[in-house]
Design brief:
By secondary structure, the chain is mostly helical. 70% of the residues lie in helices and 1% in strands. It is built from 46 helices and 2 strands. Strands 1-2 form a two-stranded antiparallel sheet. Helix 11 packs antiparallel against helix 12, helix 12 runs antiparallel to helix 13 and helix 26 packs parallel to helix 28. About 6% of the residues have low confidence. This is Pre-mRNA splicing factor, putative.
């Protein structure tokens, strides 16, 4: 049998030739060098390898030794740290073991057992080494003797069930012990070393650890008071007062030069022996003021107190606290003499100079403070005290402000830094007695030209929380920066509902404010007050010729709310002459329409033409006027001329279409459709125009056409949120959920702008109508998060809150919160909101009225 192709017999065994009975010919020829493959070509390379291997072994051995040494050091360090944190039982009870070593055998024998009973025989056998455990046979025989005879064999008991029962019983016991441990009051078991540590009597390990630590401190360094004090505190925290007193008194002997340990000894001992300990302490440390002060406190007799105080000053004449205590104890002439001695002894002490000045009469106070300023002219507290005494005792607030001004000039001259907080803190302390002093500090200390003035005062306001200080700050701030609207608004906020304060603020504002924006905020604030206050304030502004358009609109709205149409129209006429406002013109036209007075309407339109003839709002009024008069040709001319200049105005295209619809004849609808088609061609991406066209077709019964326009508009318009909202609202009930999903999916990856709010609003409406009111409220709140000016969303939120009336306890608070947040937003929009406001063109509804009427409109 032939082998496989290419097979060479013996090649794997490296055979080069062979002869068999069936010789197959010559074997494979060897390749060059193949026969000498295992021979070493160079002996020198082998020697080098051996040297390298020896070198590597030496290096590896050295590195291994170094690693082993480092590992041993590290492990030793870790073991030491672990032993510190987890001391052994012998370490924990080392102090007890030292005492146990001294016990004799008789003492050991006298120690009772835990049960309170002793078995002398068993103990002696144990001590003499003759104890032997009982054999199993004895145990078994006793067990059999005690077995109950009967039909039920005890050995048939279910041991698994018994084990489970024991397990449950043990678990209940553990749970009970856990509860009892967690209920222990730990507040009474305290000690401190750098920081307070809470100890409990149950935490034996921690207590022993602290005891061992402080005992080591007492042993190694008995001259340190901290070890004795902390040991005594631990004993006190555990309720061992006698041990604590013993330790602290031993500490006073070991380190008598520490006043802290003496004070702790006084505190720990009963009241009747405290005076004796204090006397002993003073005998050892007569120059420690803390001990003299403690002696004064322990003494009950006022005469003895004075004697102790004066005696203390003989030893410690440089103690400010001791001088202050002595001055406080004395009265009359002796007190004055004591104060004089105090400032003579410590002329650099500011507190003593101020106390001396405050205790004296007005004239003497001035002399004392003048004398102190010669010694300490760089101390701000003395300058402030001088101003305060001038105001309180001298009844001269202007001079007090002058002293503050003089002080600051001196500080500037000497290039001394002015710490604002020090000056303000000192002024705030006496705000009720010395307001002029604080006012002077506020006027001259704070740099009102700083850029961060508002943030700086916010910090001051939070620090002191005092409306009086806030008012002073802003009263001066508005004088320095009269065109800063934030300062004026903060000042009005602080004034609150105080009419007199507000009138003073407005009187000052009238003289300095020129900014229209600030007056606009003033008017908004006024409109929230009572009508009488608002009208009075606005009238004063108008009489001064200030305020501009916003003030005139404010006073006109006040008259309209009271249904004074003629008075409101008169204000419109006056305002137009002064500020030439197109908003006033529109307001005047609405009032004229309410009065049904064509002459006044024409007058307003003519005034508007003189101001801005191309204004879209004014053109709309003209078109409506011509439609009312049935002058359709004039109306057509007006809108055609207007559309040439304003092709993008959706309101103009709507007005033009409505003009054609109002014309008699069968072609009015087709003409209106033509107008909308023209507008759509001019503005193909205006979704508002698409919606107008869709509504027009739907109203005229062309539902298929309106649906086709809706589909086309979504594709054409980039901003198509309103169109998606229209689709959701008009789709069948069984398809609304799918439509909502499609709409939300269409806005994935796009900016969540105001247009997106329309889609979210439509989804929220669907959720509400599906009965998911809580979820609907969340989605309505998403709408106002995206667009806070979405008025319809606010109405729905108000409606959902109102439906919870009687069901929730904080209904009034939530209702008030909704109204307040809604009032912060301007230019509300939405179909329901616009309809409610349009019902009363003249009078201005409040936010609460609009929300209430909107809620009823939805119902």
């Amino acid at each position: 049998m032939e082998g496989p192709k290419g097979y060479i017999a013996g090649s794997l065994r490296e055979d080069t030739g062979f002869i068999t009975q069936n010789d197959i010919g010559p074997a494979r020829t060897l390749m060059v060098g193949e026969g000498n493959f295992d021979d070493e070509p160079e002996e020198e390379n082998g020697v080098n390898d051996e040297i390298a291997e020896k070198t590597y072994e030496i290096v590896e051995k050295r590195m291994e030794e170094r690693r082993k040494k480092r590992k041993e050091i590290r492990e030793k360090k870790e073991q030491e740290e672990y032993e510190k944190k987890h001391p052994t039982i012998s370490q924990q009870f080392a102090d007890i073991k030292d005492e146990i070593k001294k016990m004799s055998l008789e003492d050991w024998m006298k120690i009772p057992e835990a049960t309170g009973r002793r078995n002398q025989k068993v103990q002696n056998e144990f001590l003499e080494g003759r104890h032997m455990p009982l054999p199993d046979t004895v145990i078994v025989s006793n067990y059999n003797l005690n077995q109950i005879k009967g039909t039920i064999i005890p050995t048939q008991t279910d041991l698994i069930q018994l084990g489970n029962t024991r397990k449950k019983t043990l678990q209940l016991s553990l749970d009970g012990s856990k509860t009892s441990i967690s209920s222990v009051d730990v507040n009474g078991y305290l000690t401190e070393l750098g920081q307070n540590q809470e100890l409990t009597e149950n935490d034996v390990t921690q207590i022993k650890q602290y005891k061992f630590l402080f005992k080591s401190m007492r042993t190694t360094k008995p001259q340190l008071a901290v070890g004795w004090i902390q040991s005594a505190l631990i004993e006190e925290s555990l309720g061992h007062l006698s041990a604590a007193r013993k330790l602290i008194m031993e500490g006073t002997q070991k380190c008598p030069n520490s006043d802290e340990i003496w004070l702790q000894a006084i505190r720990l001992h009963p009241i009747e022996v405290r005076s004796d300990i204090c006397a002993s302490a003073i005998a050892v440390l007569p120059k420690k003021p803390s001990l003299w002060l403690e002696a004064i406190e322990l003494e009950k007799n006022i005469i003895e107190k004075r004697k102790i105080a004066h005696k203390g000053l003989e030893f410690v004449s440089n103690s400010i606290e001791l001088w202050k205590k002595t001055i406080e104890l004395e009265d009359g002439e002796i007190q004055k003499q004591t104060m004089k001695q105090a400032v003579e002894t410590l002329p650099q002490c500011v507190e003593l100079w101020i106390i001396f000045a405050e205790k004296e009469s007005y004239e003497n106070s001035k002399k004392i403070l003048n004398q102190s300023l010669k010694i300490l002219p760089k101390e701000p507290l003395i300058w402030i005290a001088a101003a305060r005494i001038e105001e309180i005792k001298g009844h001269n607030p202007e001079k007090a402000i002058g002293i503050i001004k003089k002080a600051l000039k001196y500080f500037d001259k000497e290039n001394l830094s002015i710490e604002k907080n020090i000056w303000i803190d000192e002024g705030v302390k006496y705000i009720n007695e010395a307001k002029a002093t604080l006012k002077g500090i506020i006027e001259y200390i704070i740099d009102y030209k700083e850029k961060d003035l508002i943030s700086f005062w916010k910090h001051i306001e939070q620090t002191y929380s005092n409306d009086e200080i806030t008012k002073m700050i802003y009263q001066h701030a508005v004088q320095v920066q009269p065109q800063n609207d934030e300062l004026w608004m903060e000042l009005i906020r602080v004034c609150g509902n105080d009419e007199k304060e507000i009138e003073v603020v407005f009187q000052h504002a009238i003289d300095v404010i020129d900014s229209e924006e600030i007056w606009k905020k003033f008017v908004e604030w006024c409109m929230k007050r009572t009508p009488s206050i608002a009208q009075s304030l606005l009238q004063k502004i108008i009489n001064k010729g200030k305020g501009g358009e916003s003030v005139w609109l404010g006073i006109i709205d006040l008259e309209l709310n009271q249904n004074h149409l003629l008075e409101a129209f008169n204000y419109v006429q006056q305002g137009i002459k002064i500020c030439k406002s197109i908003r006033l013109i529109k307001k005047g036209i609405k009032i004229a329409l309410s009065l049904k007075d064509e002459e006044k309407e024409n007058e307003m339109i003519l005034s508007g033409d003189s101001i801005d003839p191309q204004n879209v709002g004014l053109i709309l009024f003209k078109i409506k006027r011509e439609i009312r008069k049935q002058n359709f040709i004039n109306a057509r001319k007006i809108y055609e001329n207007a559309l040439k200049l304003n092709e993008t105005s959706v309101k103009l295209w709507d007005a033009a279409a409505q003009c054609e619809l109002h014309q008699p004849g069968s072609f009015s609808v087709s003409k209106a459709r033509t107008i909308y088609e023209r507008g759509k061609n001019k503005n193909p991406t205006s979704q508002d125009l698409w919606i107008s066209l869709i509504h027009f077709e739907r109203e005229n019964g062309n539902k298929k056409v309106s649906d086709s326009y809706l589909s086309e508009g979504i594709k054409v318009c980039k901003s198509n949120g309103k169109l998606w909202k229209e689709i959701i609202q008009t789709s069948p009930i069984n398809k609304k959920k799918t439509t909502c999903s499609d709409a939300l999916r269409a806005f994935e990856g796009r900016d969540k702008d105001v247009d997106y709010a329309n889609v979210v609003f439509a989804v929220a409406e669907f959720l509400y109508n599906s009965g998911k009111k809580e979820k609907a409220e969340e989605w309505f709140r998403k709408v106002i998060f995206i667009d806070p000016n979405y008025g319809d969303a606010w109405i729905w939120i108000y409606k959902i809150i109102y439906e919870k009336k009687g069901k929730i306890t904080d209904f009034e608070m939530k209702k008030k919160d909704c109204i307040e947040k809604c009032s912060l937003c301007e230019h509300k929009k939405g179909l329901i909101w616009s309809q409610v406001k349009r019902r009363n063109e003249c009078c201005q509804y409040s936010i609460e009225e609009i929300l209430e009427k909107g809620r009823l409109a939805i119902n």
